[in-house]
Amino acid sequence: VENAQLHERALREELLRTELAQAHRVQKAFLPSGSPSLSNYEFFHFYEPATHLGGDYFDYVPLSGGRVAVALGDVSGKGAPAALLMAKLSAEARYCLATEPTPSHAIRRLNNIFCDSSWEGRFITLFVGVIDPVKHEVTMVNAGHLLPLMRAASGEVKALGTGDSSLPLGVENDVDYPAFSIMLSPGDSIAIFTDGVTEAMNPRNELYGASRLEAAMAQVCGNVHMLGQHILGDVRRFVGPRPQNDDICLVCFGRTG
Fold this sequence. Notes:
By secondary structure, this protein is of the alpha+beta class. The chain is built from six helices and eleven strands. The chain has helices at residues 2-30, 79-99, 103-114, 195-198, 210-219, 224-239, and strands at 41-48, 56-62, 68-75, 124-132, 137-143, 149-151, 157-159, 165-166, 179-183, 189-193, 248-255. Strands 2, 3, 4, 5, 8 and 9 form a six-stranded mixed beta sheet that branches. It is globular. The model has no long low-confidence stretch (mean pLDDT 89).
């Protein structure tokens, strides 16, 4: 009887592992498989959940006039509930960004969708940047997410949108989400990320932190791909052998030249 029970438990565990692996593949399919093809612009992205299923999200959404929206978000919590909410975010964000006239209108509509009691108090932080490759202008909306960092061609690094962030999605209905815009010069790059980057922890329980990230970005002299790889390498060196404690998502984009 004991052997039969152990065998049955082993079968259940194997089935669970198989289902988690399948769910991981399905969730990965919601994320972009490649980068946009946009003249005079480069893109880099990296996504790695802490477990089989993650709550981080990013996407590239083609818009009218040759524009591209770059979206990155973080669902509160971890595991299957966060992954399911991330899947809904992926579908709804694409629809709202493609059908609303401005990023502000799109995020306001998206927020109202997620202001539903059935989500049991969960919320989503979200950043959206719409790139206009003709004007070389990026229009941004920040729904309670970490401030993006811009690295100028000169090497100067600064946070964008200080004071322009609004509430996360799912907190309160009918919130206004102000937009702000910047112009990108040749060689300028922007990094957006989830707290799995800045809150990565080393064996001494120290956080990687925003200041260390800014210093790492200032060291890079090269293209967007080099910038993204350098950030990831610096985080990994800091963390060392400690296991990953949160989902990590990083997206970089910039104007070539």
